[in-house]
Amino acid sequence: MGEIIVIKRKIIRESAKKKSLPDLEYDRIMWAIKGRSLEQSRKTLYCIKIEPKKIIATDGSVLFISETEAEYPSGCYDVLISTWKLTVLEKVDVEYPDYAKVLTFTQPPDKVEEFSTEGKDAINLFIYEAYQLQAYALPLLQRAYIPSQSIKMEWREGLLPLVITAPMQTALVMPLKM
Q1: What are the domain boundaries of the chain?
Q2: What is the pTM assigned to this prediction?
Q3: Which of 120, 127, 119, 121 is nearest to 164 (CA)?
């Protein structure tokens, strides 16, 4: 059995009505975990990678990187439990793909769009903007959506990924091959 990491959502009470404030750190971790493959047979993509101050997950079609404020031990981890208030990770011995290769672009973006994802129709605006220059699988865009943030989207000509950035979060979504 590998090293275990337990990450808990911090519950911060805002008022006497017991309404809790969001734990942005935990929300970023949960968002990053959504990027991993759910196919257990793809062991290197089924786990997540933790680097100093970063959590990385990919399924081959999306790549999610979330910066963290806390220091977690580096390595590859299986997600044993992941709920809205508790995440349990177990260290595994696998070679994670070299994700840094897809973060290097030789050409500048053809189009850049910046907007806020605040509001009830924000996900619809996000998806509409994403489809402006390329076709993407809708479920991938829905997973990559970063709520309640100021985001920037970058498109490049060809079969290059859509780059979505927000403070402390980055997502790459590969376009559909036509």
Answers
A1: 4-94, 106-173
A2: 0.91
A3: 127
